[in-house]
Specification:
The chain is α+β, with helices and mostly antiparallel strands and 62 residues long. The protein is 27% helix and 16% strand. Strand 1 (2-4) and strand 2 form a beta hairpin. The longest helix is centred in the first third of the chain and has 13 residues, at 13-25.
Length: 62
């Protein structure tokens, strides 16, 4: 679904909910910004027996 913001813009309701959860758990996330992710993404390929880990060195835009 869509959520209509105070600025009359539409935003995916799941994105809005996730943002509100982050804002409540980490109140100063807006001021400090997100510096990194607390997990390492893993790519699963059914044709490869071992998972390949992707390591992020820098988030774009931060």
């Amino acid at each position: 679904g869509l959520y209509k913001m105070g600025t009359n813009q539409l935003l995916n309701a799941d994105v809005n909910g996730a943002f509100n959860i982050i804002r409540k758990v980490i109140p100063d996330v807006i001021d400090q910004g997100i510096k990194g992710l607390p997990f390492n993404p893993v790519v699963l390929d059914p044709l490869v027996s071992e998972p390949v880990e992707l390591r992020m060195t820098k988030l774009s835009g931060f």
